[in-house]
User: Which sequence fits this backbone?
């Protein structure tokens, strides 16, 4: 059993969409570094690298690259792996469940839920935050547009596999 | 599988002792709120209350009470439950894996390992920190003496069960 946080509209952000690719492909796209680098950062940003150790306590590290070529590394920890259905990771802890130095000013926990919907996938990405101000910052950084554009890229990538 | 952090002497603290009570009793003492309140805080402190939801994502909340009667609540999240062998929880996240507001100035992840040793238990409590300065603060707060005194209390409590 696992106790997921209840989504709180005051502190959390949710992207929910149905896409026309199979759940297995969405799962593969989220858990394969070689695929992540092809879709994770919404263009014109790119993903310079990705490392995933797909188990609780494993690392979920990405380096996003700005259009100007500046790199933004992010270090996170995988918390839950429900094969094909749910992936939970957080920037609030580093690999091995170790607390992180206060480098991350926007800590969030992502819950990626994948459910079959006809021939496609009901996709729900939730970002849990400590409070409303962190949510607001994440919202203003462009959570809705960014995560939706990335999902479009994910669909494009897996359709070409 | 679970990826535990490698213990780093520069950033982490470890209490390792062998105690003459069975592993099952040590596990019970760590996972039963009614028992936690009897041993968790080294005297003359006490534990005013404890709430545990024993599953990944579940809460691990305690209220420690100073000799002067002041309460110090702590909210944490359980990360790993390996029945009878290993319990991992963190103050770096709150219940449901949600990041916590910056209330905790001493975030750590605790790894409690319990192994049979003859008729007793080899007990290893590790506190993982983000960096050496947090470790130092935790050390100066009295980690070694406090966790060892609490373990003595744990042994006393379960022997009387």
Assistant:
């Amino acid at each position: 059993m696992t106790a997921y946080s209840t989504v709180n509209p005051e502190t959390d952000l949710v992207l929910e969409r149905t896409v026309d690719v199979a759940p297995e492909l969405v799962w593969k796209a989220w858990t394969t570094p070689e695929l992540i680098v092809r879709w994770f950062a919404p263009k014109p940003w790119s993903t310079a690298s990705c490392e995933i150790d797909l188990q609780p306590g494993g690392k979920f590290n990405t380096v996003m690259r700005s259009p100007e070529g500046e790199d933004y590394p992010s270090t996170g920890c995988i918390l839950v792996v429900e094969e094909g259905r749910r992936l939970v990771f957080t920037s609030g802890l580093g690999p091995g469940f170790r607390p992180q130095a206060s480098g991350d000013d926007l800590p969030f926990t992502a819950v990626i839920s994948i459910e079959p919907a006809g021939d496609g996938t009901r996709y729900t990405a939730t970002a849990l935050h400590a409070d409303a101000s962190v949510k607001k910052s994440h919202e203003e950084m462009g959570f809705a547009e960014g995560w939706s554009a990335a999902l479009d890229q994910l669909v494009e990538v897996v359709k070409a596999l």
Observations:
- The radius of gyration of chain B is 15 Å.
